[in-house]
Amino acid sequence: MKREQGYYWVKHKGQWTVAKWNLSPFGDVWHVWNWIGDLQDSDFEEIDERRIERKPTIEIFSRVKMVCERCGSDKVLADAYASWNEKLQEWEIHEIYEKGHYCENCDGECRIIEKEIKDE
Description:
The protein is mainly beta. It has no helices and 12 strands.
């Protein structure tokens, strides 16, 4: 069965979460999961092959925000490789690069890290 582009439940390190399956604009040679970096099927313990119609708006597990490692600001921009999906009318991120990120607060290049969002 050929997997369609979209969101799926995947099990990673013992926890279920939602990841996006991206079809390559270059044919069948390069399909990846877009979730904390680009992953392959073998990176997950289990994949529920029933596609989710839309990405869930309610997160089941802890939520994170991306912040500047130096100052902690969430006013950060990531350098990425993306393509436009005409059918979905959205940008599809294929890869977020390790370098080249920018912090608006520091007004310069930065390293982006995850920070857990605490429920208040």
